[in-house]
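Review session, final week

We close the course with one last complete record, chosen because it touches almost every idea we covered. It is Acidic leucine-rich nuclear phosphoprotein 32 family member, a protein from Chanos chanos with 251 residues. Go through it on your own first, then we will talk.
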Amino acid sequence: MDMKKRIYLELRNRTPSDVKELVLDNCRSNEGKIEGLTDEFEELEFLSTINVGLTSVANLPKLNKLKKLELSDNRISGGLEVLAEKCPNLTHLNLSGNKIKDLSTIEPLKKLESLKSLDLFNCEVTNLNDYRENVFKLLPQLTYLDGYDKEDKEAPDSDAEAYPEGLDDEDEDDDEEEEYDEDAAPGDDDEEEEGDEEEEEGEEEEEDDISGEEEEEEELNDGEVEDEDDYEEERGQKRKRELDEEGEEDD
């Protein structure tokens, strides 16, 4: 999705002057430049353009109220003097993962008098000797560099890189759907387990009934066999008596 379309979608029927936070991460910039942003975003305080293929910030509009600018994972190698002109009140700037190689590239940032936090993770400039000491000298207004102050104390959460307020509503909706599914799943499992238990109990009862019927049939059959045996024995004895009587008469 290109940057202009993404901005249109992010507006969600709002006017640019109503927007205070704008997240454009992972969309496509045209020729490595910012497009679709205008001076109408006069209330914008937070702008995130992570991994959009930027090579320049020259097209950034005038954003007097912008406080936090996220430019990480792009291909910016210079032209930062524009920031002092376009975003004079910037306090947090993240340039991690860009092509910044030397201190002269970030020198224009000293005109950003309100700049409090600067991040340059994964930039070649961090490999220079005495990198941290020299950056703090070059930009005396800085409190935190790469998340730590001059005494190597970590920045508090309020000054950390992650800006929770920059999350998309879509991400929040996805989280809510996942939570809903997680909540619903146990109930479904319980119902299935209860149904299985009831079905098993029903099968056991049926087996018991069948077993009982079989036992009764066996008892009846046994009884019938015994009756037949008694009857045959009685007939045999009667026949024997008759034969004995006939023999006596013949005598």
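Two points worth writing down before the exam:
Confidence is low (pLDDT under 50) at residues 161-188.
The domain at 3-145 is CATH 3.80.10.10 (Leucine-rich repeat, LRR (right-handed beta-alpha superhelix)).
Good luck, everyone.
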